[in-house]
Fold this sequence. Notes:
By secondary structure, the chain is α/β, with parallel strands linked by helices. The protein has helices at 4-21, 37-47, 51-56, 67-71; strands spanning 31-35, 59-63, 83-87. 44% of the residues lie in helices and 16% in strands. The protein has a three-stranded parallel sheet with strand order 1-2-3, with helices on one face.
Amino acid sequence: xxxxxxxxxxxxxxxxxxxxxxxxxxxxxxxxxxxxxxxxxxxxxxxxxxxxxxxxxxxxxxxxxxxxxxxxxxxxxxxxxxxxxxxxxxx
Length: 91
């Protein structure tokens, strides 16, 4: 969580360029997530209730990471309209 502000600014800049370039992107059909470190990054943004991410995405996925951190925020009212998926390798 210490890196929330840095992650938020970086992803906002990167994703805003995508949104400006592709005009027909809608939050209802957009998914955001990642594998391993990307899953942890997604979880940090969700745990921090990042305004940009929550405004532009409705589906989130975590693969091999992020789930423990994100689990704490999934019960919040702001998250009820979103969909979540998590995968982890079972050894």
